[in-house]
């Protein structure tokens, strides 16, 4: 049931969109990620597009040009769904074979030598002239906790004697998040306010968050869902996934510490979350699979969380970079500075395990639902995906090249996340930047 | 900013729908709750209705009859919104003054002596011939933990030395829930399966839940929301609430015990939740306000959680009854047996405090969002809103009148919840039954 490599993955493919062939582009013809956009500042309705080089192929314009007419009924069904509304939910509700047929059509149309080039050139919009909206109506958002390195590091801060709880290696720990406050890259949001309890006080205080942090995550956009009461078998799980995005799950650490017992994070996480403009499909990521193993000393996964395919490469090798651009850096024209570099393959639980676990009790997933990986920290200090880890719980500040220091995020800071897969002999494919900027707290 | 009593609350009002005037009806003319229905087994689209006696006023049919034409622009706007689609979200997005105008129009139309009686008789559908759908598209579902009696009882089971955590009396504890698996009364769902860890074992096992429980809650349907980054002031909070429903937040206690640390309940709660078919508006509940106080020995609420109106009657006096009908009882024609009787006024935090807290950090609420009160247990043993409490953590079985015993819910059991407000000199207004039945687990 796993997507095979096919002609759309061919490293030799080149596009007539010249910028797609430049080394270092996130969007060569082997990628073809989906997003929702319109021309910046226009009153146009948002619509689906596919990133190619520094351009966006406007799917509605492409469809109306007639370019998709020769590809048969399945592709027709897919392009009708992709252009039906202002989000990708109708396309997500279709199945993996249909998505694959549309990808092949897009690859064919955008290749060097396509007879449709002149027809499609007018359906291109420069990315620099576009603004994005959420690619899907997100019915429910679930956040997991898949990095054992992150769970251990955080656990040490809260429970020095017992960092990793006994369930961690058995259960893909997850919790429900807030969908209303998820926005696409470019989000600007006010520093949250709330109750916190200073360690020196017996009673809480009220005011702006003082320990504002980001979390570097991968997001999983669900495709076709399951009926309530049914479970998605792990062998089928990936075929229910439309694709992956990047996700910054903003966190108010001081609010979290005071509120989270016994039912988990609430206001600490629901004021903002930011995702990448582009969803990279599972099919595009197929050449970048990584080995997934479980140490012999660890519990092996229960049957519903295990499969031969998982063992043969259930992880994805996606590099994950976090950068910071402070207000001073922005004003001085200084480029963002890297804070960390990690990799999705270091997660303890894979995408297919998350889907199988989420549904095993009968919970229904719907097309457009978003699953977060949880903070992806790797085994090394420089791969930690949050400031809480990089600053040892807020105890060691980070020195920036311009002389500034940071422990947590300050007003005016922009956090930028990037993710890409690349391997010898294969092109780099990426997600585009996730950028979000923190504004001062509202006046109290 | 609080709804005043007005002519729609007049105890002397009677309806030309005769069943609305019978003592003990949940739906006298002073109630007028909203739901979404269609004729049972029909292929009709679901549409909005108002319960009156044992009938439903089909709002679309009533609107098309022209009965609303004399009420002016605000009522016109409200009835257009109420009949625009297959859920109440468009009506919920309007403001409290508009809801109030529509209520007055409905009250006028349904009163004894209304000139519109003959016009509206054909817009009535017997409740016995109707089936319901969710009244709103629920964007996000949040569950709180407002009963200090419940929190203390549960805390004793998990932490005998430290039942109530230090944050409880300061923070209205809440967490995000799952919206996809919420359904209306009549829901039948499979017993969930999942990982649990028996106390006698070092490692978890996989199989059907053995400690399936209900939770008696009140649900809060949000009206007009707030922009992200803004907060809803507690003085304005109730005007953002469309109304209340009853909510059964089904819980797999054994799954919960193993999975819930450190991020809260997940699969233990997301397999099913059941709500009442009817939403009773805040305006209808206005005569049934109850005093809200805070013991002098307890921390007083922070400013954002306090107001003069809260102190003057921020709670609602709504009785809450849980009944059980086992398969054997159903087959023998035995009526459901009461398990508990509690009251919403015993909650530690009020509706307006939940709305103010939810938004204080900038989280945006949207019309149609659902907030749950958390299990509403009162101060006495017989007012406990879950089996976990009624059976002392599963240690003492409950004897039913037909000789059966229960510790937790068994396959084929139907749990029924009822809620109503009544006071000397005021009519009883209610929510209708919430019934849901547990089916055997899927085969593994």
Automatic annotation (TrEMBL), chains A, B:
Keyword terms: Calcium, Hydrolase, Magnesium, Metal-binding, Phenylalanine catabolism, Tyrosine catabolism
Keyword presence, Hydrolase: yes
Pfam families cross-referenced by the UniProt entry: FAA_hydrolase, FAA_hydrolase_N
EC number: 3.7.1.2
Species, as recorded: Herbaspirillum rhizosphaerae
All residue ranges annotated as the Fumarylacetoacetase N-terminal domain in the record: 30-135
The protein's name: fumarylacetoacetase
Cofactor(s) this protein cannot do without: Mg(2+); Ca(2+)
The keyword Nucleotide-binding appears for this protein: no
InterPro entries xrefs: Fumarylacetoacetase, Fumarylacetoacetase-like_C, Fumarylacetoacetase_C_sf, Fumarylacetoacetase_N, Fumarylacetoacetase_N_sf
Domain Fumarylacetoacetase-like C-terminal: 168-438
Gene name in the database record: fahA
GO molecular function terms noted in the UniProt entry: fumarylacetoacetase activity
Biological or metabolic pathway of the protein: Amino-acid degradation; L-phenylalanine degradation; acetoacetate and fumarate from L-phenylalanine: step 6/6
């Amino acid at each position: 049931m796993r997507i095979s490599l096919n002609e759309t993955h061919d490293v030799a493919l080149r596009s007539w969109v010249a910028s797609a062939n430049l080394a270092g582009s996130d969007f060569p013809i082997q990628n073809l990620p989906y997003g929702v956009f319109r021309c910046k500042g226009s009153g146009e309705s948002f619509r689906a597009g596919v990133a190619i080089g520094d351009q966006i192929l406007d799917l509605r314009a492409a469809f109306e040009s007639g370019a998709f007419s020769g590809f048969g009924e399945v592709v027709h069904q897919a392009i009708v769904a992709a252009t039906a509304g202002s989000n990708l939910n109708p396309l997500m509700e279709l199945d993996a074979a249909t998505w694959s047929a549309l990808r092949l059509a897009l690859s064919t149309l955008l290749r060097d030598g396509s007879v449709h080039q002149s027809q499609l050139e007018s359906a291109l919009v420069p990315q620099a002239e576009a603004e994005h909206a959420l690619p899907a109506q997100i019915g429910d958002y679930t956040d997991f906790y898949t990095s054992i390195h992150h769970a251990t590091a955080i656990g040490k801060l809260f429970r020095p004697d017992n960092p990793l709880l006994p369930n961690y290696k058995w259960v893909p720990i997850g919790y429900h998040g807030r969908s209303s406050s998820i926005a696409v890259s470019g989000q600007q949001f006010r520093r949250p306010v709330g109750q916190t309890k200073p360690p020196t006080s017996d009673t809480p205080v009220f005011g702006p968050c003082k320990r504002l942090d980001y979390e570097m995550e991968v997001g999983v956009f669900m495709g076709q869902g399951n009926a309530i009461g049914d479970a998605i078998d792990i062998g089928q799980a990936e075929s229910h996934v439309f694709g992956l995005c990047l996700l910054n799950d903003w966190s108010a650490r001081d609010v979290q510490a005071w509120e989270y017992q016994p039912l988990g994070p609430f206001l600490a996480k629901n004021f903002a979350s930011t995702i990448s403009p582009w969803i990279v499909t599972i099919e595009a990521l197929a050449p970048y699979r990584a080995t997934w193993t479980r140490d012999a000393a660890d519990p092996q996964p229960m049957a519903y969380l295990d499969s031969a395919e998982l063992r043969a490469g259930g992880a994805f090798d996606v590099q994950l970079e976090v950068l910071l651009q402070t207000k001073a850096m922005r004003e001085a024209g200084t480029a963002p500075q890297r804070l960390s570099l990690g990799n999705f393959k270091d997660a303890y639980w894979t995408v297919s395990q998350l889907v199988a676990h989420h549904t095993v009790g009968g919970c229904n997933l719907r097309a457009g639902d978003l699953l977060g990986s949880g903070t992806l920290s790797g085994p090394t200090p420089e791969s930690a995906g949050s400031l809480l880890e990089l600053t040892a719980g807020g105890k060691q500040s980070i020195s920036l090249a311009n002389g500034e220091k940071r422990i947590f995020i300050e007003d005016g800071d922009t956090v930028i996340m990037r993710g890409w897969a690349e391997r010898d002999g294969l092109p780099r494919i990426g997600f585009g930047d996730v950028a979000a900027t923190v504004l001062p707290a509202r006046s109290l």
